Amino acid sequence: MSTLLRYDATNMFRLPITVRDRQQLDDAKKAVIDAWKNGDQGWLGCPDDSACVSRIKKLVKEKSGFTTCLVLGIGGSDLGARAVWHAMKDEARGMTLEFAGGNTDPDELAAILKRLNLKKTLINVISKSGNTVETMSAFFIVREALISAVGETKARQQIVATTDEESGILHDIVMKEGYATLPVPKNIGGRFSVLTDVGLFPLACAGINIAAMMRGAKEIRDEFVAETPTQNEAARYAALHVYGDRALHMPIHIMMPYSERLRLFAFWYRQIWAESLGKDGHGPTPIAALGATDQHSQLQLYQDGPKDKMISFIEVEHFKAKISIPRSVKKIPQLAYLSGMSLETIIHAERDATAHALAHEGRVNGTLHVGRVDETTLGAMFMFFEVATGIAGQLYGVNAYNQPGVEASKTVMRTILEGNVLS
Question: Is 296 annotated as catalytic?
Fold first, then answer.
C-alpha cells in the first residue's frame, strides 16, 4: 500500500468481483504494462526519465531572469500544469505562471496581455502538431505583442516551444526562428503528459520541485507493477467504477476534493476520464465538484436524485494552515460548539458526514486520502489516475489513448472557418 495515498472503498459496498472479473483485471494489467514495455505507450515510464528533468532544469537556468512564464496550451497541454500551479503557487519560489491558449475568448486574452510586462515574460507555447487552433491563435497574437515590446531578436530568446521533435507546423516555425525547444513524446498523449516536458517545464520555471513529483509518481507506478490488480488501489478504483457503471447503471462519476488547492485537479481528472473512456457509444460522464462548497449546490441531487452517480472524495489529512474559530463564539449558544474548533476539523467532519449520509441512502462513494498537498503527493495522484484510466480503458474495451470525437469536431470547425458550407 502506498505511503502517499490510500483509497477507502468501504462505501462502494464491496461491489462483487467475480473470478471472471479477476481474469479481466489480470488481462487489463498485462495489456497496460505490455503497451509500456513494447513502446506503444510511454506514460508509465515517465518517473524513470531523469534526462527529462535534467534537460528542463538546464533550460530553466538558461531562461532565468524572467518574472513570469506565460503558458500557451489547451487540454492535456496545460491542465496538469494548471492543477499543480493552483495547488502550489503560494509556496512556489520562481516565475509566476499565467495561462492562455485554452480558449479563443478575446476578452480573456486581452485581460492577460494587459496585466503582463512582456519584457519580463517567458513564453512557453505547447502543441505537438502546431495545428491546434486555440493555442496557435493565442501564440501568434502574443508573439506579435512581444515583438512590438522587445524587438524580433529578443523575442526569439523569450519563446520556448514544446512540440514534436521532427515534424509539424510549430516544429517548422521553431526551425525558422531558432526558438528553444522541448520535445513532446511521440508515445504519450496530451492528457497523460503532465509528467513530461509538457507539464514539467513551466512548473520548474515556477520553482516547483519536479523531481519530487517524479518520486511520487514512481511510488505509485512501482506498486502497480508489483501488486496483483485486486491488491492495487488504482486498479481497484478502475474496476469498481467500470463495474458500477455496467452492473449498477451508474455512469456519472463525480470527483470532489475537499481542498481548494485541489479544485483544478478535478478538472484534470475530468479530461482524462472523459476523453480516454468515452468511445463507441459507451463511457462514464465525469463531473468536477468541490467540497465543502458543492454540498450547498450539488449535494441535494447526489443525495436524493437518480441513483446513477459514483462519487470520489479526496481528503487532505493535514492542511498547511492552522486556523481556529475564536473562543468568543461560545457566547452565542447556538454556535458555542464551534468555539476554538479548527477549520481542519470542520472540513474533515463535512467530508465524513457527506460520505456517511450518501452511504445511508445507498449512494456509492469512495475516498482517496492524501497526507498533505505537496509535489510528491501530486505526482502520486497523477500516476494513480493515469493507471486507473489505462485499466478502465481495457475493461471498457476501448482505446484509451485516442480521441476520434475531438478530431471530428476539429475537421468541421476548419470547414466553417474556411468559409465552406456544411452538408
Answer: yes
From 61, 296, 322, 331, the catalytic residue: 296
The answer to whether residue 249 is catalytic is no
Homologous superfamily (CATH) of 43-208 is Glucose-6-phosphate isomerase like protein; domain 1 (3.40.50.10490)
Reported as a single tens digit per residue, the pLDDT across 295-318 is 999 999 999 999 999 999 999 999
| Tens digits of residue pLDDT in 171-180 | 999 999 999 9
Residue ranges per structural domain of the chain: 5-36+213-397, 43-208
Residue 30 appears among annotated catalytic residues: no
pLDDT tier for residue 2 given thresholds of 50, 70 and 90: confident
The residue annotated as part of the active site, out of 57, 348, 369, 410, is 410
Amino acid at 67: T
Confidence label for 416 from pLDDT (cuts 50, 70 and 90): confident
- The pTM score is 0.95
Label each residue of 365-420 as H, E or C: EEEEEECCCCHHHHHHHHHHHHHHHHHHHHHHCCCCCCCHHHHHHHHHHHHHHCCC
* Cβ neighbours, 10 Å, residue 30: 12
Annotated active-site residue in 275, 315, 375, 386: 275
| Separation of alpha carbons 376 and 372, rounded Å | 9
- Residues 259, 260, 265, 269, CA torsion sign: positive
- Residue 47: its pLDDT value, please? 98
